[in-house]
Amino acid sequence: MRRLLSTLLLAATVALGAAAAKAEDAPANIRFGDVGFGFGTPFGVGLQAIADAKGFIAGEFKGTPTKVEFTYFTGTGPAINEALSNGQLDFASYGAVPNIIGKANGLDTVIVASYGGTTIFGAARPDLEIKSIADLKGKKVAIQKATIIHWGLVTALKNAGLSEKDITIVDLKNADQLAAIAAKSVDAVFGADFLLPLEDKGVAKIFYKSSDAGASGDGFGAFLVTDKFRKAYPEATQKVVTGFVKAAQWLADDKNRDEAFKIWSRAGSPIEVISKSNAGSLLGQKYNPHLDDFFTSRYQSGIAFDREQKLIRRDVDLDAWVDRSYVDNAVKSLNLQALWPDRSATGALQN
To answer: What PANTHER family does this protein's entry cite (predicted)?
Structure first.
């Protein structure tokens, strides 16, 4: 009897030790990075910002000691790559061009979801006859190079039968672009919806909107995790992606559209500007988290762009970089297959 009690006590001690070890394996903090805008404390304008503001990711860890921390980088993609390189982030959401550069340069990231689309705008001086991409021939155009906006401009030029050689590109950050178009030192600028107020002020006129060219015209990017975190905390990784997908589900509900715009306005753009930027867009489609054939084809174009621009020297194995299991598990567990049918490489719905 005494031997039996000793055995039971030993078994209980081992079980308790295993449970304690499992609890200790949970991450104390999970650090997220995103592109930030605005004055004072920056904020985001995409899916991760919704997940942050509405607590979708934090909610997955309710009742646990795990804390989530969100940082919005005004230095955009290069700043996020630097933070990942320095081990300061576990997850990041940003444009394809810089995260491809990061991967090619050795960052141990893994793509776990799409972050959706970015609407790209072209704004021209009002005193010039620039009404289409074709009218940019021979003109000076300001962009920030090595960004998804840069990809958007080059893609638009190709679709219009032009190339970069037909224009003069001036590499400027966002704030400097605004000053340049106001001073008439450039003829046009390419950027996000921060350009829209220029039209109301009479400083520029909007002549191009990427979504008018269809889904393939918009910018794109991904939600990534470091491979180190994914391997150490697979369950936490799944919880994070599930929270991210819940944010996309919430955003797909049209009754939440106005609240979403209010959240994004924390990044500095007026609600009216955000509404104008998303006019005609179904947010559920724009922020589809699926890693389907359409996502793959877009990333292949991003990799090709980075190579053409000599932004990367080594190729990127997209199949090895993408792990679809987390987003697929989240979509299945939430029964959202009908919300986001798979898309072909051209963006056509497959089922």
So the answer is: ABC TRANSPORTER SUBSTRATE-BINDING PROTEIN (PTHR30024:SF21), ALIPHATIC SULFONATES-BINDING PROTEIN-RELATED (PTHR30024)
Counting every residue, how long is the chain? 351
Identify the sign of the CA torsion 310, 73, 279, 243. positive
CA distance 308 to 24: 47
pTM score of the predicted model: 0.89
**What digits encode the pLDDT tens for the residues 199-245?**
989 999 999 999 988 778 899 999 999 999 999 999 999 999 999 99
Tally of CB atoms within 10 A around 205: 17
Q: Which CATH class is domain 29-117+220-334?
A: alpha beta
Task: Please tell me the predicted confidence (pLDDT) of residue 351.
Answer: 63
Residue 14 has pLDDT above 90, yes or no: no
Could you write out the DSSP letters of every residue in 277-300?
Answer: HTTT--HHHHT----SHHHHHHHH
Q: Does domain 121-213 have CATH number 3.40.190.10?
A: yes
Domain ranges of the chain: 29-117+220-334, 121-213
Kindly give, in sequence order, each residue whose CB lies less than 8 Å from that of residue 335, ignoring residues fewer than 6 positions away: none
Please provide the distance, in angstroms rounded to a whole number, between the alpha carbons at the two ends of the chain: 64
Tell me how far apart the alpha carbons of residues 246 and 281 are, in angstroms, rounded to a whole number.
Answer: 19
